[in-house]
Write a structure and sequence with these properties.
Elements (H helix, E strand, L loop, with lengths): L2 E7 L4 E7 L4 E9 L7 E5 L5 E5 L5 H13 L12 E8 L10 E2 L2 H9 L8 H14 L5 E5 L9 H4 L5 H7 L8 H15 L7 E7 L3 E7 L2 E5 L20 H10 L4 H10 L2 H6 L5 H9 L3 H25 L4 E5 H6 L1 H8 L11 H6 L5 E2 L8 E4 L4 H15 L1
Parallel strand pairs: 1-6, 6-8, 9-12, 12-14
Antiparallel strand pairs: 1-2, 2-3, 3-4, 4-5, 7-8, 9-10, 10-11, 13-14
Helix pairs in contact: 1-3, 10-11, 11-13
């Protein structure tokens, strides 16, 4: 029985899933939160669906991973007798720069390159690396695989990833569009074709991964040709707390008027903008919907602006692809918020999108076609499964090696 552990290490959290690969079954899952803060805890779900929370002082990532491994081995909650049962560990790594266009077995050389990529993703890559180092120490003989958020988008043509800035800055610092959520876009686009029974290599697909973070990707014949996130995950759609596209002139104007430095403006655009910034209420769509029902004007504005930006990107990617065959909704909002799907698809009949509004309003978080039978474009919901995708890549690389 082959088991793969998937880790997703954030700045103050670690999510994990343990897969039994023959059946693709999740045998254990959970996460550590508030690492290095007061009130840190490990929360996990037992096979019978019961949730367990263990509080403890978890000061850094290594301690968090030790805690997770301890629970996996424990008599009361565990599902393995020895760490040797874990064949490999797959890590989600946010930024692979231009060096990685697919998942790789982690070696010292790979770790050196990941350290070079820290500048590109200062918030994400350091915790990703901490997870890798912790497993090296705690399970030194277990192979590790790195699966990159940016890798799927490395097939973008140069004219799609270049910015209109001096070329020397691209050569010097690698400033260009990289795109993120690649593992999700790759998984749901391939899965949609499987679900619809059409060949992946012959489709024009637009995938909308919309949750607290969000991005839209144009996929032609199985390859990403454009995506809305940029050098960092701030560009593109309006998100929960991120601004998405903003006039760079407006950014320097805010810095001047508010006497802000680079850290201040980065925090403003990443943490206090987006749906939260416009509504002044919350970055959570459920809270926003409640406020809209209560007649809150700014909540309405936030929702309309959010949905409109998604619609605009879908339209522009239809142009980039020369038409669309499949539109996929995924992510927390894409899978659950029928209002966003409805508003994004409204008046898109000219593009071949005809939504079945009744069906759309009645479904959440399951694989289903929500367009009318007459619709030229198949509109589908495909719940994303990045962890399974990471586990699959990990197995593939082990078997190659």
């Amino acid at each position: 029985m082959m088991k793969i552990l998937v880790l997703n290490c954030g700045s103050s959290s670690i999510k994990y899933k343990l897969f039994e690969m023959e059946s693709k079954e999740v045998v254990a899952q959970g996460g550590v939160e508030k690492i290095g803060m007061k009130g840190s805890f490990l929360k996990f779900t037992l096979p019978d669906g019961q949730k367990v929370m263990l509080e403890g002082e978890i000061l850094e990532h290594r301690a968090g991973i030790e805690y997770i491994l301890g629970v996996l081995l424990s008599e009361k909650y565990g599902c393995i007798k020895s760490l040797d049962e874990i064949e490999a560990v797959g890590h989600r790594v946010v930024h692979g720069g231009e060096r990685f266009n697919s998942s790789v077995l982690i070696t010292d050389e790979v770790i050196d390159i990941l350290n070079e990529c820290i500048e590109l993703a200062p918030l994400h890559n350091p915790p990703n690396l901490k997870g890798i180092y912790a497993i090296q120490e705690l399970m030194p003989d277990t192979p590790q695989v790195s699966v990159f958020d940016t890798a799927f988008h490395q097939t973008m043509p140069d004219y799609a990833y270049m910015y209109g800035i001096p070329y020397s800055l691209y050569e010097k610092y690698g400033i260009r569009r990289y795109g993120f959520h690649g593992t999700s876009h790759r998984y749901v686009s391939a899965r949609a074709c499987e679900f619809l029974g059409v060949p992946y290599e012959e489709q024009r697909i637009i995938t909308a991964h919309i949750g607290n973070g969000g991005s839209v990707t144009a996929i032609k014949n199985g390859k990403s040709v454009d995506t809305s996130m940029g050098m960092t995950p701030v560009e593109g759609l309006i998100m929960g707390t991120r601004s998405g596209d903003v006039d760079p002139g407006a950014v320097s104007y805010i810095m001047e008027k508010e006497h802000m430095g680079t850290n201040g403006i980065s925090t403003l655009l990443n943490k206090f903008s987006g749906v939260l910034g416009i509504s002044g209420i919350s970055s959570d769509m459920r809270e926003l919907e409640a406020a809209i029902k209560a007649g809150n004007k700014r909540a309405m504005l936030a929702m309309e602006t959010y949905n409109y930006r998604i619609k605009k990107y879908i339209g522009s990617y239809a142009a980039a692809l020369g038409g669309v065959d499949i539109l996929v909704f995924t992510g927390g909002v894409g899978e659950n918020q029928f209002v966003t799907r409805r508003d994004v698809c409204k008046n898109m009949e000219f593009m071949g999108i005809e939504l079945d509004e009744e069906l759309n309003a009645s479904v959440r978080a399951k694989e289903i076609v929500i367009s009318k039978p007459t619709s030229k474009v198949k509109v589908v919901i495909i719940p994303t499964d990045e962890e399974l995708s990471i586990a699959n890549d990990t197995i593939e690389i082990l078997q190659k090696g």
